[in-house]
Every structure is written in structure tokens, then in C-alpha cells.
Amino acid sequence: MDSSQRCREVIQTCGVELVDGRLPVLHTPSTLFRYQLSEAIRNNTDLVDYMGDYLDELLSEHDAISLYLDPMTLGTPDSATTHVSGGLPQTESLVRLMLGVDALQSRLVATLVDKFPEYIGDEGTDGDASATKVSVKILRQLRWLDYVLDSGALTEKLLETLGFVPPDMQREIVVALPDIISDSDNTQVSKVLASMLKETPELMLPVLDTLGSLDCAPALLQEARNSVISHLASAEPIELPVLLRFLLQSVSADAAAPVIMRIRKRLDVDSIVLASRQRSTLADQSPDVLIFDAIATSLRSHKHLRDAWLKIIASDANVGSQTTLDLVVLLILHQITTHTKRVESVLKAKIDIVSSQPIAYTPALFESNIARFPAVFSVYFPALVSVSGWLIQTSALGSQGARVATSILVSAFGAMGMFQRQEISGELAVHIGSGNANEIDTAAHIYLELATKHPYELRPFAVFIKGLLDYVDNLDITHVRTIFDTLGILSTLAGGSDDSMFSDLYIFVRKQLSSVFPKYNRIGVVGTVSLLRQLGSEHTLEAAQADECGGSSMSQAPRANIQALRRAVQLLEMLMDSGRHQSWTFISMTYDELAHIVETHGLHQQLLTWLHENVSSKFAAQFLGDVEDLNQRYMLSGHA
User: What are 169-218's pLDDT values in tens digits?
Assistant: First the structure.
């Protein structure tokens, strides 16, 4: 009996049946096979050599090598065989099984590493793109072994192979190294990988991934960080999340500040994202969200990074040096409870709420950044709303803080989706209901800004503003005017073609005007005039006419939307008729409000004509005379 036949019989006796041209069949548990084979060859040196030669012979056949690298089939009780892909327990390959036998491992490892280069470029996939390369299968046999008898030799051989294989196989080896080498070889491998960062920058991502899995010396990590930082400016956008994650997660507390300062200097997010968007029209390929996610993950995991970055931002007094990166980092830190107050202190100084330093964070800065990176700020939208809410609560109307809060919310409302718009609308209503005068001032002003700049986007969320009408009697008259101005804009879009909202407001103000209580009368006057201001403005009527006529010319002059004009006149008639039965105070306020909108808001010419004919021209006849005659004529309840 020759040695090959003898080895075949020993293997079959231990529980594995070798079938020519087919996968080997495993008839016993893997652990039992290893034990039986180890016992069979323990005291037989010749058999160990024969077994090594036999395995070399099996692996020398290019056409059949995959049979011994793929998982074996399982033997069934009736001696039939079933492939493991049918849902049965996963088995190991024959090679993997043999690597668990101590007497055979060293020689088999050497054979596999020697065979690895032979299959590069000749993978035997038969045109099947989904088939695994033979070289990759060989490499997989060496991963996650329970133990390696001579790990130093294996590591040395793999590093040697790494020097002459093509880049795609270099990548496979680099990625597999942490699963193959032992801890004692970390230093040797780390030195080789650190040198590869400079020599083969195209492999930087897998090299950094592997370095992050190894226990590297501080000097080697510093060398690797220097290579990565020098590569930041020229890196592909898709590479940046990995590079940043390595830089931030590998740095110690002592070296954190210099690394962060270099990142801020070299990482131009605006240019990177712009270049990426020019190459591709697919939104999901934009790397901005991934870049900031890598930074956020590192900041949440390491306190020394949070402290160092916040300190750097706070100490940067150069106006104009603030970037998108700094703004997003502040939002990330604001979401971390232990840093919320510290972030607010930095923002307070940068926004110049209480200091006399040059303003660093202007409304224009927030507006431009949110417009350029809506996807990023959508991710950190809760922090954005939280910061703006804090500014609303702590800033008076017209202050720098209020202007920044307005810029943040108006920009976010215009750039983001329905969910964010609903949240903003709801938050503003909460601020108005707070009872704080400054908070109500700013929130009501933001509502008016939204209605002015994004009326059609705000219109679906008008229910939040209409809900405030139930509590409007608790607000100052200036706040009431602002809320009605907002509702007036929304209810008179396209000349008030949405009957439901306008009708609701019309009923509300008529109810206030007919009340016997003066404070409700004031609300009714302000509400009516606000609706008139929006419905009767020349801009609204001309826009409505253009919308109704599709932009075509009309023969009548001046052009006007008849429905809108009729509604405006209806408001005026209701207001004047209500004044006939109220106090001098009511009439005085009515004329003051009307005079103000005539002077400042540019009512349509036809409405001005109506006011002249029905109000101002009759003023002398109606209101210049004896007090007793006037009182008797109008039965006024109050006297001058």
C-alpha cells in the first residue's frame, strides 16, 4: 500500500470520507475527528510526514483545491450525503479541520501561505463574479484559529507576501491580519502597516482599520496620525469618515488639542461636499452626514475630545474663522447633558448676547450653513431646536440672540422636511404660551417671519397658530397684532381662496367685535384690521389676479381680484357697523388702526377710494358737532 492510500484510509477511519471530484464527507463531530487523527499519528513520525505530503498533493491540484477549502458535506445515517447549504449545521473545510491537528499545523500553514501567491490572477471563478476567489479562500483558513503553534513564522511569511502581491490582495491580507496574528506580533505588524500609509496611500482605509484593532505603540500611532492628517486635504470624500474616526479615537488626552486644531485647519467640509455633489447627483452619496457622524461617535465616546474641542472653539477669537465643523460640533456637544451649559456659555460669548466682543456667530452664518447642509442639520435637529429655544427664552426681541434664533428656525423651516416644520411650528406655540413677554415677542415674530418667507410651507401647520386664539385675551395687544398678521397672511394666500380658514377668522373677529367687554373689542379691531391689511394690500390683490387669470392681461383697470376686494369691503363694513354701538374708545382705536395701515401698508386703490367715500369724507358730518347731539345720534356708552 502506498503512502497516499494509507493516509486516505487513516483519514476515513477517523471520520472523513474523501471522494474524487466531490466535497469530502464528514461522518463524525469535528472535535472527535481531530482527536482520533492526533492519536493515530502521535507516535508515528513517518505517518506525520506522509500525511503532510498527502495534504500537499491534494492542494497541488488547481482544479480540485476548492473542494478542500470549502465546507464539507455531512454524512447522514443512511450513508447518503447532504450539502451544508440546505440549512444543516455549518461544517469546516478539510484544510481547516487539519489545521486543528498539532502535528500537521506548521507544515500545512507553510503550504497554504506558499500556495497563496500562485492563485493571484488565476482565481478559477469560471466567469462567476459571485464566486469567492481561491486566494481569499486560502486566507480564510488561517483566520480565527484556536491557536497557532508558530505564530511568529506565520506572521513573517504573511508580511513577506504582503510586499509583492497586487493591491487588491494586499487589501485582503491587511484586513485579515488582526484575525490571524497573535498579540505578541502586534508591534512587528504595526511597524509594517505604518510604513504602508506613506508608501501605498490607496490602501489607507484598510490599513487604518487594522491599526485600530492592534495594540500599537504611541510613537507608531503618532506617525500614523501624521500621515493621515497630511492626506486629509487630498482624500476622497468617501474616505474622510474613516480617516477622522481613526484620528479621533486613537489620540490620547495630551495630544487631543493639537490633532483637533490640525483637523479644523485642513478639513474644508464645504469644498469636499461641493466636489462630491458635482461628481454625483445621488443625494445618498454625499459624505457630509457620514463625516459628522464619525466625529459625533468619537466625541460621545471620549470626554477628553469633548473638552479639548470645546476649549479650542471658545478660545478662537478670530471673527470669520468659524466653520460648519465648529457649529455642528457645538450642536453635538449640546446634546450631551454634562456639556449643555458649557456650550451655552460659549454660544453666549460668540453670539455676543452679554459681551462687547466682536460678533462671531451671526444670523447669516447659521442661515448659510443650514442652507448648504440641510441633511446634516436635520440629523442634529433636536439640538438645533434646543439651542434656538434657549436663545428665545434668554433674549429680548431685536437682540442679537433673538436674531440668531430667528435665523436658525426660519432657515431650518425652509430647508428641511415636514417633520421638522411641524416640530418648529409646535415649539413656537409652546413659547408663546409660556407667559414670558420676551419669549412671546420673539416667538410671535418668528411666526410672522415664517409666514412672510415660507407661507405655503407654513400653511399646513396653521392649526398651531389658530390654537393660540383661544388664549389670545391673555396676550399683550402687540402680540395679538403679530399673531393676526401671521394668520392674515396664511388665510389670504392667492386672495383668500381658502374659504375655510378665512371664514373661521372672520367669525372669530366678529364675535370679538360684538362682545360687551372692551378687551375683546380691542382684539376684534386688531384682528379685523390685520386681515384687512393682508387681504386688501395691493401686492396680495395683484398676485391673486395673476394667479386667477394665469398671468394673462385684463381689459379692466385697475386689475383686481373681485372676490378679495369684496371680502375686504365686507371687513370694513363689519368694523364700521360695530363701531356705531360701542364706546368712544372703540371708535378711537378703530380709526387709529385704519389710519396706520393706510399710511404704512399700501392698500389697493379701490379700497382707499371706499375708505374716502365711506369714512373720511363723512368724518366732519358725523363727528364734528355738539357732544349731546353725537351721543343721542349714536347712543355711545362712553363720553369724552
Answer: 889 899 999 999 888 888 899 999 988 988 888 899 999 999 888 888 88
Place of cell 486635504: 233
- DSSP letter at 496 equals T
Which amino acid appears at position 103 of this protein? A
Write out the DSSP string of 77-99.
TTS-EE-GGGSSPP--BHHHHHH
Say whether 620 sits in a helix, a strand or coil.
Answer: helix
Q: Is the dihedral of CA 25, 27, 33, 37 positive or negative?
A: negative
Which three cell numbers mark 516? 360687551
Contacts of 127 (CB under 8 A, 6+ apart): none
Q: CA 522 to CA 554: how far, in whole Å?
A: 40
DSSP 44: -
pTM of the predicted model as reported, rounded to 2 decimal places: 0.78
Q: Are 138 and 85 in contact (CB under 8 A)?
A: no
b/e per residue 44-77 (b: at least 16 CB within 10 A):
eeebbebbbebbeebbeeeeebbbbbbbbbbbee
Distances (CA, A) of 230 to 223, 263, 265, 341, 351: 11, 10, 11, 35, 33
Report yes or no: 411 and 376 within 8 Å, Cβ to Cβ.
no
Length, in residues, of the chain: 640
What digits encode the pLDDT tens for the residues 455-465?
999 999 999 99
Amino acid at residue number 464: F
What the block records as the C-alpha cell of 543 is 398676485
- Torsion region of 398: left, alpha or beta (phi above 0 gives left; psi -120 to 50 gives alpha): left
> Residue 607 — very low, low, confident or very high, per pLDDT cuts 50/70/90?
confident
Residue 551 has pLDDT above 60, yes or no: no
